[in-house]
């Protein structure tokens, strides 16, 4: 209620009652003023009512919601269905303009402001949880794969002749597709096996750079978060190579914001070498529906350049989800989720070790992977374990068996699934991701043990036979 | 309520009352069965309750909503904020898989089904409103500009050496950016002035094809819907050239689905020549928030190929909006909106003619533009008219004054805004778009007249002076 | 957005864009200021966004929504379920205090204000649609029957010895129960048959007053809106009797606000005689869910007295529904609904006459019933017609056959359903109530004709036999 | 999704993915089947999605939501505002019929079923948390005061001559008003002071019964939950008197369901003596908005009789809130809230004792009050303490100073606020009610200490003076 309304309300109510309402309102408003003034993610999360109030206020700033608006253009944000209007808080104009995804729209001051604030909050959060040197970020209304692609496309203008993207192998299709669809040739750098773990082959990478000649290399695309037994890439060393040879360095940090280790490596890489952009998904890091990604970097101009390459407007929806979520979480909420995640990672490890001991299996030692773990599976077991877990309501486990071969967009990868042509074990992976609960771990372990028991007894009955890998996602 | 529940409910209620409920339920269900069986947009729109019921049912099919689900992957669609969960009907997994935007997700049967059904309904609707030969379509969760870009990127694999996109000029930034960001060189084909109208210069286009050699041409990008005084491109003739020379032909049909004329030209072009894909925005054609586009074509394989080029998952949000809206509209709702639009176009024309007569101005004759119209503005008037209309709550009018020059992504265009280097008039445009009401026309005309009167009297006072063009969007 | 926020937003957006938002906001705010200042129902309805914005603002004024609230009482409006909180806009404290249903609550300034405003809007509307002399009204969070009962209970204090309520018969259970539950004895005044119509037997009423002696009569309870063939009671004449003999006069105006005739009679009765209170349902007159009633009158003190008799707090829910609906309708919306209703009444009459002619039936002439009509049914027809219509999805038709006897709360009524011991016809009723559409009439007539045809042919086959009355509600 | 839909969905999705969806659906359905079959509150709470799904299903069973419905009655549940329709899940017909609040409506099978299920769940819960002998209950869509009044009105028919209600004093207006508005004379039975505590004066009660003669006593109205220093009434002894003298016994158990002690006394009273009905508020016991009450008893017929006295229909809204909340809580949720409440009661007591020691005050010993506690206040302190706490955002504290006199509905009570004409202390009360958190206690204690410090220093400065009591609600 504005001051005038509260004054008029005194005709109905004693002013002492209204004083309290005014005080409460002032405390809510001051949060909003701070957000606008400091451009920071609030420390403490807001209640839903304050968030919704702000959304309604922002929505009223868009021309399609002006009581006296009269639209004679081709896009006037008339929304046919009330269900649709409501679920978007009547925001209809999207974000960006023809020229630039982060430009403000005259017709949509509210949506534009929401977009700016979201970007500001994400930037603040990224800095505060660990990548202090971040200079700019953009919330892109498309997922990680597309954002990697857009980032690669943004490099072409300044390196028109470069046609190779060097890619320390990770067995995940999207990033491979992102390179190919962007029109580049993929140069696979196979990982090296160190103990159970797979790490970046830095000498091979260096070798490749000099073979191809740096000016022909459009970018090196490294990865932080990934399925075990692959570890985080050796970001600092790659960043140094990139700096030395003036090669763009893009980091696929898909779900790495939730891990202090990933954050640390990016911050360090940016300090000691070159990192042009690091890209992360909003769904995996911020517990929102799939649909957005954040591209961030240490050079504000390059990030802005990506925004300027984006042709046309875009959905505000992923930005809106993030806006709501960040206000609701606050920095404290996020860091406490990170802490819990780390604890559940430890708990999951302990529980998997017990199972490993009980069934004579092996928990793969992958200390450079802070999120995902691998457990070897009994010889001769494959698909059936994955399917059984899936049908028991366990989602997200991957069962990888050796010797798969896959060709994606013209690139053939031996030992598909394992990030390595000859990984010595079949195994399954499990991850402790943001939002996982201790109860989730317990449920998983219960179901896993049940499946392993069943399979073990079957195996004892019949002779084991080889089987194909299946992902239960 | 399922049959068993209704049976159990007889312990509480007389069975005659329940019979009616059962009958009503059967009629609702039969709509859903038909949707699944026929894969068609319903003729008559559904009520919101039936739509929401179906959405809840679909949402329950996604693993994150299974009561007993246990997620140990990195992406388990845990949604932090209740506000966010609710506005997405708890759909969190997005659409597509790493490999393909239209692939189904094991974790998300409901979202996948929703996506398939939406695509099926859009295809059916496009066929029934006029482009009968359409073989396939994809709802892309990004707007027109990005979808044009993705479509162009999809051409590279089969035409790796082609680097030019021929582009009959339209003064709109997104499509130009789409070409450039996709890594192609833009070859501008200037329009020819026929009376007041600007049309495709087919001879110049032919000439360019032979100069550059067809195999170097990645595609010709034509446009249907556009601001007056540009008309629809000569699609049929371009399509014939493309067929003859084996050049891909992409049609930017941004808001053309709402116009029978645009639909007719695309259908004819596909019949007599080559059209690889036509692309249209979901917001402008279906009255949903900005964020989606439909790419459709006469060759199902090419459309599928575009889907397969998409790296990673994507937001279900634009698809969901369309799903709700199509079920709510039905084909009848859509065609009746089209009819109204056409009537309001006539009404707007009549009213603008009156104003033209009253103020000694000229309504530009542009019979090949079925949506937008141009009215010349008094000599010496420019920015001020646009600003005044904008501040009076008129959105969407563009005021174009001659002799603007603009450089976008390295391409310099003379006479920017007018689609022509030397258009002889300054003018303003107004469009009769889907959802516009007669009251909108009346309000607009009232405000326009007021502004023109004010300006006329000012002009009489002082001598007129030249001014720059400003768009009121 | 408050002024400070808009000022701070200039760091993100050009101030010209914000100017528009500010202007739009001012126009919205001025509506709210007017509402608070004038205490009147707005002429024109508001859009949902403005309504929701105001609701959020009111909700924030309740202590349970204060960010820093700390509750140590027994009722602190903690709401367990998010679904429940949301559907009530987080209003939890209800209305009223122990002492008075219309008293303001210190803990709930927002709910209290909402309540006051709703009462003010209803009062204004009642005056403007016809009962100009109304001095006060109370929206009661309970339906008509209970509100009649509460009003009767409020009379006891000043007339402790009076034990009779005189009641011109209307065959509807609630009002009868209201009298009995309030602890009074019902004195039925049978109606007189005038042509097809049933009217108040004023002489019999006078006679009864003098027989019982006025001081023993607690009240006379008349009725306006009712099922045909009963007409509106002769309010003016009863009001005069009440004035003369100093007897309270309560009018059951259940769904009469929607009819200018009912309004006119109440206004006149209040002018020429005595009307203590007239009571109407919110669902039937304002198209909200069942649950509220309005008690209004020409003497503000008596209405306030009723409020003060109410023990304890009450649900805000019916008040909230009315608040939203009145803001959404505006006075213009309401009067236009009234006009449509009246037109559909005429249309229904015309169509029923056609059917009457076609099937050799008779449309009962009941010019004093402005809402409900009666059509005789073929001899020997009863239950089956009602059931058939019900099963065909026609609700609200009553089929009345003569000679039913019913005892309710100790009162035996002959000819139950017909408001008369010996009504000469069997008949069915249909009403043109607020919100009915022309399409409803057409659908009804189609189904009615179908049923009548079926029944006629059956009747021709077999000999007709007597049947019992059944209401299809 | 029904079986047929899932079968048809196989045209779009692999049947293995659908199998999972089917399994999940079966588990959800089985909960609904159990609810319908067992008529019990679920042990474990349901997720919101299942609850909403059921609500949508129930709503579809009401005729106003039938796709082919055609209404020609006066009440067809047409809902004008979409906001209103939505917040009620499109349930519009309310509950009950003219004759009986618990009767089913032919037009509203869904609402009727919802009502029946809610009543069944409440009955089950009441039994399981302690009053095992409960035979029936009714959720009334009005708050405690009105429900007490309705219950008293229901007694009149069988005891027409009885005009007194004996009332062991409790200083709360609603119950007093309930008696008076129902038309009875209040006979106040003053409490006796036992230590710090006020208890029922059983001898005085007996005395009064014989003085007035039992047949003139309509009922004895006792109270369980109340502000300290009053304790729970001596229910068992009163119940025995009632049994012996054949006097109805109504228990005002306003917020006593949350306390095992209150439950125990009611159960015992019902076993050893006579309890006709015990009445409790839904908001205070179930954390829903104000608006409902539950009347329950050991004799199903009497409870049904109350329902049959209710004239007309009523709002479904309070029932709906309870339905949602009980499904969401489950019995386990409720009992765990009870346990927490009890722990916070202990914690509050400990903290108040500390303050008592620190400020030389006294925590009143009231072991028969399981919810509310009293702390004496410094001599000469009154209003100011209440106001200061209120303005600091503490709600629900009552500050009581001796020697207040109040006349309510003709009944004069000395020592108002203290339940006793001469309570020896001024004091404040604080309650540990359902849903209170440990943080609430801490915040309260912090603010209380601050206020006490401020007041103490003021008192030291000036000489203390007497002051009036003020409630901070």
UniProtKB/TrEMBL annotation, chains A, B, C, D:
<comment type="similarity">
    <text>Belongs to the SepSecS family.</text>
</comment>
<dbReference type="GO" id="GO:0001514">
    <property type="term" value="P:selenocysteine incorporation"/>
</dbReference>
<comment type="function">
    <text>Converts O-phosphoseryl-tRNA(Sec) to selenocysteinyl-tRNA(Sec) required for selenoprotein biosynthesis.</text>
</comment>
<keyword id="KW-0820">tRNA-binding</keyword>
<feature type="binding site">
    <location>
        <position position="392"/>
    </location>
    <ligand>
        <name>tRNA</name>
    </ligand>
</feature>
<dbReference type="GO" id="GO:0001717">
    <property type="term" value="P:conversion of seryl-tRNAsec to selenocys-tRNAsec"/>
</dbReference>
<feature type="binding site">
    <location>
        <position position="313"/>
    </location>
    <ligand>
        <name>substrate</name>
    </ligand>
</feature>
<keyword id="KW-0808">Transferase</keyword>
<dbReference type="InterPro" id="IPR008829">
    <property type="entry name" value="SepSecS/SepCysS"/>
</dbReference>
<comment type="pathway">
    <text>Aminoacyl-tRNA biosynthesis; selenocysteinyl-tRNA(Sec) biosynthesis; selenocysteinyl-tRNA(Sec) from L-seryl-tRNA(Sec) (archaeal/eukaryal route): step 2/2.</text>
</comment>
<protein>
    <recommendedName>
        <fullName>O-phosphoseryl-tRNA(Sec) selenium transferase</fullName>
        <ecNumber>2.9.1.2</ecNumber>
    </recommendedName>
</protein>
<feature type="modified residue" description="N6-(pyridoxal phosphate)lysine">
    <location>
        <position position="284"/>
    </location>
</feature>
<feature type="binding site">
    <location>
        <position position="97"/>
    </location>
    <ligand>
        <name>substrate</name>
    </ligand>
</feature>
<dbReference type="InterPro" id="IPR015421">
    <property type="entry name" value="PyrdxlP-dep_Trfase_major"/>
</dbReference>
<dbReference type="Pfam" id="PF05889">
    <property type="entry name" value="SepSecS"/>
</dbReference>
<feature type="binding site">
    <location>
        <position position="105"/>
    </location>
    <ligand>
        <name>substrate</name>
    </ligand>
</feature>
<comment type="subunit">
    <text>Homotetramer formed by a catalytic dimer and a non-catalytic dimer serving as a binding platform that orients tRNASec for catalysis. Each tetramer binds the CCA ends of two tRNAs which point to the active sites of the catalytic dimer.</text>
</comment>
<feature type="binding site">
    <location>
        <position position="75"/>
    </location>
    <ligand>
        <name>pyridoxal 5'-phosphate</name>
    </ligand>
</feature>
<dbReference type="InterPro" id="IPR015424">
    <property type="entry name" value="PyrdxlP-dep_Trfase"/>
</dbReference>
<keyword id="KW-0663">Pyridoxal phosphate</keyword>
<dbReference type="GO" id="GO:0005737">
    <property type="term" value="C:cytoplasm"/>
</dbReference>
<keyword id="KW-0648">Protein biosynthesis</keyword>
<feature type="site" description="May act as a substrate filter by repelling compounds with a negatively charged alpha-carboxylate">
    <location>
        <position position="74"/>
    </location>
</feature>
<dbReference type="GO" id="GO:0000049">
    <property type="term" value="F:tRNA binding"/>
</dbReference>
<dbReference type="InterPro" id="IPR019872">
    <property type="entry name" value="Sec-tRNA_Se_transferase"/>
</dbReference>
<keyword id="KW-0711">Selenium</keyword>
<keyword id="KW-0963">Cytoplasm</keyword>
<feature type="binding site">
    <location>
        <position position="271"/>
    </location>
    <ligand>
        <name>tRNA</name>
    </ligand>
</feature>
<feature type="binding site">
    <location>
        <position position="98"/>
    </location>
    <ligand>
        <name>substrate</name>
    </ligand>
</feature>
<keyword id="KW-0694">RNA-binding</keyword>
<dbReference type="GO" id="GO:0098621">
    <property type="term" value="F:O-phosphoseryl-tRNA(Sec) selenium transferase activity"/>
</dbReference>
């Amino acid at each position: 209620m504005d001051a005038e309304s509260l004054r008029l309300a005194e005709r109905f109510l004693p002013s002492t009652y209204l004083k309290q309402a005014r005080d409460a309102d002032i405390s809510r408003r001051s949060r909003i003023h701070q957000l606008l003034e400091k451009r920071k993610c609030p420390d403490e999360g807001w209640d839903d009512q304050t968030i919704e109030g702000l959304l309604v206020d922002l929505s009223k700033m868009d021309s399609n919601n002006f009581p006296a608006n009269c639209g004679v253009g081709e896009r006037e944000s008339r929304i046919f269905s009330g269900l649709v209007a409501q679920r978007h808080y009547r925001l209809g104009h999207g974000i960006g303009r023809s020229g630039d995804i982060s430009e403000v729209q005259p017709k949509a001051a509210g949506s534009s402001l929401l977009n700016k604030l979201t970007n500001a909050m994400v930037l603040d959060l990224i800095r505060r949880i660990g990548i202090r040197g971040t200079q700019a970020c953009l919330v892109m209304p498309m997922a990680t794969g597309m954002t990697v692609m857009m980032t690669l496309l943004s490099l072409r203008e300044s390196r028109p002749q470069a046609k190779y993207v060097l890619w320390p192998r990770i067995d995940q299709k999207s990033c491979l597709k992102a390179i190919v669809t962007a029109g580049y040739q993929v140069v696979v750098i196979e990982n090296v096996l160190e103990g159970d773990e797979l790490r970046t082959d830095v000498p091979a990478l260096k070798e490749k750079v000099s073979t191809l000649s740096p000016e022909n290399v459009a970018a090196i695309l490294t990865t932080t978060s990934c399925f075990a037994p692959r570890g985080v890439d050796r970001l600092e060393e790659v960043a140094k190579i990139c700096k030395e040879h003036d090669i763009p360095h893009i980091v696929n940090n898909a779900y790495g914001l939730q891990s202090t280790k990933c954050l640390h490596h990016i911050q360090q890489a940016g300090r000691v070498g070159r990192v042009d952009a690091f890209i992360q998904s909003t769904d995996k890091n911020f517990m929102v529906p799939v649909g957005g990604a954040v591209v961030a970097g240490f050079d504000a101009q390059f990030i802005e350049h990506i925004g300027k390459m984006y042709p046309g407007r875009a959905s505000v929806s992923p930005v809106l989800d993030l806006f709501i979520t960040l206000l609701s979480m606050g920095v404290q909420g996020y860091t406490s989720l990170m802490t819990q995640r780390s604890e559940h990672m430890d708990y999951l490890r302990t529980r998997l070790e017990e199972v490993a001991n009980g069934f004579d299996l092996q928990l793969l030692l992958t200390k450079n992977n802070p999120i995902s773990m691998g457990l070897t599976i009994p010889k001769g077991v494959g698909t059936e374990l994955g399917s059984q877990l899936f049908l028991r309501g366990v989602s997200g486990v991957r069962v990888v068996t050796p010797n798969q071969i896959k060709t994606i967009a013209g690139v053939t990868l031996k030992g598909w699934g394992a990030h390595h042509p000859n990984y010595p074990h079949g195994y399954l992976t499990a991850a402790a991701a943001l939002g996982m609960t201790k109860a989730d771990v317990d449920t998983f372990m219960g179901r896993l043990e049940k499946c392993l028991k069943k399979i073990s007894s079957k195996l004892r009955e019949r002779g084991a036979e080889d089987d194909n890998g299946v992902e239960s996602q």
